[in-house]
Amino acid sequence: MDSVDRWRYGISITSLVIIFSAVVYMGDKDYVAKPMGIGSDTLGPDSDETFSEYHQRAVSTVATALEEHPHDHAYGLVCFNQQLSAPDAAATVAKLQRINGLQIGGYPIVGIPAPVNIGLAQHFVQQAELKQLDSNDIRCVVAHDEPTQFSALQSDPRVASIEVLPPDAAWGRFSVKPVLGAHHDAP
Fold this sequence. Notes:
The protein is an alpha+beta fold. The protein has helices at residues 3-27, 51-68, 86-93, 120-130, 147-153, and strands spanning 42-43, 74-84, 98-104, 110-111, 138-145, 159-164, 175-176. It folds into two domains: 1-34; 42-176, no CATH class. It is built from five helices and seven strands. The strands form two sheets. It has a five-stranded antiparallel beta sheet. A two-stranded parallel ribbon has the order 1-7. The chain starts with a helix and ends in an 11-residue tail after the last strand.
């Protein structure tokens, strides 16, 4: 073996070691398939809270949001006094900028995409049908808007409570606990 062949052999062995090391190193860096942790923000009542207690806490979150960041968009949970049909729920929350999720029946919140070329009521019906749920049993929505809009909605007689998260909360990084008693124990 001459000196050129030795160099080629050395370079190829070194390259293989580098490639193998890179594969082993990158194999441990799986950011896509591993589930990301949920942040500490939560919407909905605590497990030991009555709906009346939850309502009081929710009202205070809207007041805090209005005081601290009235024009910063935030996520909020809007719960109704009773189960609403898709058209009634859509009419109630029509002024909110974006609806991100629905609580239908006693089921957890289901995320929904933005409506495309259809009205909000029809979109709610479509999303309920896709999930095989009753579109006449909408109990809450998760929405994204300014605290001023959530505050204005508090006076609607169909709304039982509105809870608002801080503006740094991101969709998919907070949990939403189902509100089961909104139409039974409303203040």
